[in-house]
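Self-study notes.
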Amino acid sequence: MSASPAVLVAGVLAAGEEALGAATSLMEASYGPVRMASQAAAFTWTSYYAAEMGRELTRQFLAFERVIDPGLLGRIKLETGVLETEHARAGRRVFNLDPGYLTLSSLVVASTKEASYRVYLGDGVYAQPMLVYREKEFRPLEWTYPDYCDPAHLAFFEAVRRDGRDRGVLGGCERSG
């Protein structure tokens, strides 16, 4: 038995427009065409990546045409980690890829870092619920990263959900309360 289908999404954090374009192209080569993309914006929420990637970072979220079984998330995270490493310069990543999936009821993102609110998937990969759909909108959880809470990004995820629902490709709970 497999899980309900989900839209493959990815958060891309890049050291400039060239790196953002390269990351997007690599993701499309691996996972098919991007169906929707958020507006690229300066990443100002934390300095966590500054030492490795620099201070002038760009954040963009991608939603792919591809619908996946959520059980593939761990494998996809490992594959995107290889892309990050293969395209690093002088041992430093030029982009960070955070794959995830979106259903009618939630947005879940993969991580390689353990935390109390993450579920272990295997092979060093964890699943982190980032947003839940309640009362007709996506809502953050106490551990949701600040950039995922940005109103423009929340609107993007709502648009992806609406598109997936309207195409009839999304699984998950439609209940809004």
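Second protein, same conventions, sequence then structure:
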Amino acid sequence: MPCRRTDWTRGKRDSARILVVDDDAGIRAVLAEALSRRGYQVQKAPDGLWVSRALHSGAFAFDLVVLDWKMPGLDGLVVLQQLRTFAPETLVILISIAADDQFRFEALSQGAFEVLRKPLNFGALVSLVERALQHVRRGRTKG
């Protein structure tokens, strides 16, 4: 069952829906606040299991996911694989304190848009989110 997505290509950027997934409540809150201040609709999720349930129930409608790698239960790479299966157009930015070149290569080869290392530079994250959404917007307008 394809997941419903917001068509933000015709409207303002604030119609883009972003999901922030991190098992650290403080990081979730700060990331959500940084993205909300830029006008995005942001929802927070505590773990990969939340994402998996939303995907399997057909209740997943996000344009971009900021996803932690190391989480209890389902880690970020498992969730990335599920996103590629059930919501293939959803952009994914993986974040991790343990991200190295090998992890980055693996994540990108599995379909992540980019990998950022914690501690995060929030300006860099916001710029990356904007670049990711512009990248898809350009792709949609070429067709």
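Instructor comment on the second fold: The beta strands are 17-21, 41-45, 64-68, 91-96, 114-117.
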